[in-house]
Design a protein that fits this description.
Strand order of the largest sheet: 3-2-1-4-5-6-11
Order of helices and strands: HEHEEHEHEHEEHEEEHEEHEHHHH
Helix content: 40-55%
Shape: globular
CATH architecture of the largest domain: 3-Layer(aba) Sandwich
Bound molecules: NADP nicotinamide-adenine-dinucleotide phosphate
Number of domains: 2
CATH class of the largest domain: Alpha Beta
Strand content: 15-25%
Largest sheet: 7 strands, parallel
Number of strands: 13
Structural class: alpha/beta
Oligomer: single chain
Length: 328
């Protein structure tokens, strides 16, 4: 432990023998967890992940254990961690899992981190989480943030906006619809704003939070704020397609999406997700920590975007639930 503290204090220049600080990360074979693992690994950390996915090829340097909500198992897996990066959450209620169970599971993870005396707890939340929110996702996130703040461990809370990368559900599926249909209905005109951040920037911000000292509460947001309509236009440009965007009342847009969902077997956009967008909850109110421009990222990756539909339900509850999403 002392060697790890020295390593952290001196960075990669410290010449001791057992240097690598150790991070335990939930979801290192998934999305933000994979980006955080990649960044921390690049900074010399050893990574252990809690996940229900198989390791992808090339991830042999990462040890893993099942993510199950047994307090003894969690405490044992977290023991000896210099940092615990918690990304666990559910996007949508499904079966017995809803936001209340996600909050409960997060409280168990925080309690296990306290029991295991991890060096630092880095919790990935969401921008504008609020106990006053009428949206279960944002209210549940705020409840977990409160548990993190009062747990007594040195901690950081990182709040991403919309995280844009190769496996991002919203951006990929906007691209998928744009590629396949001549028109794109924009719910309620799309004049509400968002401030996306790239996945690589998010991984860096999470890793910075793991290496920082003192308690932190930071947003992970990119340098540019755009309206939803501008974002769709940008994705269309990145994909090299010209499409007619037309204003559609939100209810009508959701009704159309529900029809598409019958064929896709997925939840494309939930009512609460549209409400979160329209309430501009994906906009930060702090100077942006993200430096990479999302428009540049989209233009550089447009040829791959939307080639196939990203089915989030299959990815979490179906035949892809144990397949890796990203290579850390
Ligand atoms: N992606 C975004 O744009 C975005 C924006 C704002 C905030 N966030 C927050 O960032 C965190 C990470 O998001 P992410 O997009 O990286 O999520 P993710 O890849 O879907 O999952 C993150 C973690 O939650 C676990 N998980 C997700 N759904 C689950 C389910 N139904 N049952 C059991 N475990 C489940 C995953 O388990 P496995 O390891 O088994 O996959 C993984 O450990 C979340 O707290 C999310 O709310 C994300």
């Amino acid at each position: 432990m002392m060697a790890r503290r020295l390593a952290r204090a001196f960075g990669r220049g410290y010449p001791g023998p057992t240097l690598a600080p150790r991070a335990v990360i939930t979801g290192a074979f998934s999305y933000i967890g994979a980006a955080a693992a990649r960044e921390l690994r690049g900074r010399g950390w050893a990574i252990h992940t809690l996940t229900n996915r198989r390791a992808p090829a090339g991830a042999g340097h990462i040890t893993s254990a099942r993510l199950t909500f047994d307090p003894d198992h969690l405490a044992a897996e977290l023991r000896g961690a210099d940092a615990f990066v918690n990304t666990y959450w559910i996007r949508l209620p499904h079966g017995v899992d809803d936001f209340a169970t996600a909050v409960e599971h997060n409280r168990m993870l925080v309690a296990a981190a306290v029991r295991a005396r991890v060096g630092r707890l880095v919790h990935v939340s969401v921008s504008n989480a609020s106990l006053d929110s009428r949206l279960g996702y944002y209210r549940g996130k705020a409840e977990v943030d409160a548990a993190v703040r009062s747990c007594g461990l040195p901690h950081a809370i990182v709040r991403p906006t919309l995280v844009v990368g190769p496996a991002d559900v919203l951006t990929s599926n906007i691209a998928w619809f744009l590629r396949r249909f001549p028109v794109f209905p924009v719910p309620d005109g799309g004049r509400y704003r968002l401030q996306p951040v790239t996945l690589a920037d998010t991984g860096r911000i999470v890793a910075d939070a793991a290496e920082a000292c003192g308690d932190l509460d930071v947003d992970a947001a990119g340098p540019d704020v755009v309206t939803f309509r501008e974002y769709v236009e940008l994705v269309a440009r990145a994909c090299g397609v010209r499409r007619a965007l037309f204003d559609t009342p939100g209810r009508l847009a959701l009704a159309g999406i529900r029809m598409a969902e019958l064929f896709l077997g997925d939840t494309v956009l939930a009512r609460e997700e549209l409400a979160g967008l329209e309430q501009e909850l994906l906009v930060s109110h702090a100077p942006p920590l993200g430096a990479e421009r999302v428009d540049a990222w989209l233009l550089a990756h447009g040829t791959e975007l939307g080639r196939s539909y990203v089915n989030d339900r299959r990815r979490h509850f179906g035949d892809l639930a144990t397949s890796p999403i990203a290579i850390p």
